[in-house]
Amino acid sequence: MKNRLVLAMLPFAALLISACNTVPPTNVHQPMTARPAPRMENIAAATGSIYQSGASRTLFEDRRARYVGDTMTITIAESNTASTKSNTKVSRSASISASAGPIAGLPGRSFDGMALTGASSNSLDGKGDAAATNSFTGTITVTVIEVLPNGNLLVSGEKQVAIAQGTEYIRLSGVVNPYFINAANTISSSQIADARIEYKESGTISEAQVMGWLARFFMGVLPF
Question: Residue 170: which of 38, 28, 70, 7 has the closest Cα?
C-alpha cells in the first residue's frame, strides 16, 4: 500500500519540480542566436601566407554587424507615458399635466376638479481617468539571425541573470537598419523596428505573486 502511494505521488512531484524550473514563455523572434554561415573564402585552400581572406575582414571595413552570426549591442532606453480622461454628462426631463371640469351623468359624485399630473427626470454624470508610465533601461548584446533582402538585419538575443533563488530573463528582437548602427557597433532600442522587449523572471519570488490555479478557477466560476 505504501509503495502504491509513493508511485501515485511521483507524477505530482515531477509536476511540482517542473513548475519551479519553468522558463517564462517568450514572444521574441526565434531562434535567439545563430552561428555564422561559412563564407566562400573559407572553402579555398590556404595559401600559406599570414593573411587569410576568410579569417579577417578588409582593411577598410568597419566592425559593424552585417552578417548572420555577427553581434551588436542594444542600448535599451524605453520610457512610455500615456493618459486619458473622459467626462460624460447627460440630463433629461419631461412633464405632463391634464385637467377636466365636472362630469355629469355618472352615478355617485362627479369628478369635480379632476386633474392629472406627471413628471419624469433622468440624469447621468460619468467621469473616467487612466494613466500609465513605463520605464526600462539597460543593455543587451544580440545576434544577427537573418539578413533580409533589402539589407536590414533581423536580430534576437537573450540575457539570463541568476540571483539567489530566481532567474531574470531579458530578451530583445527586432529589425535593424544597418545605417543606424554607430561606429561602436551599438544602436538604441528606439531605432529598432518591430521591437519585442521582455523582462521576465522565474523562481519562488515570482511564483508567490501569482494566484494559484484552483483559486483562479473558483474566481472565474463563482458569481459573487
Answer: 28
185 within 8 A of 63, measured Cβ to Cβ: yes
Q: How far is CA 47 from CA 42, 50, 56, 58, in A?
A: 11, 9, 14, 17
Which residue has 459573487 as its cell numbers? 224
Q: With bands split at pLDDT 50, 70 and 90, how would you rate the model's confidence at 18?
A: very low
Check: CB of residue 40 under 8 Å from CB of residue 152.
no
Is 96 inside any structural domain?
yes
Q: With 70 as the cut, is the pLDDT of residue 20 above it?
A: no
pTM: 0.61
Q: How far apart are CA 182 and CA 188, in angstroms?
A: 10
Alpha helices in 67-161 (DSSP H): none
- Domain assignment present for residue 163? The answer is no
Say if 223 falls within a structural domain: no
pLDDT at 206: 62
Task: Determine, yes or no, domain membership for 89.
Answer: yes
Owning domain of residue 90: 85-129
Q: How many domains does the chain have?
A: 1
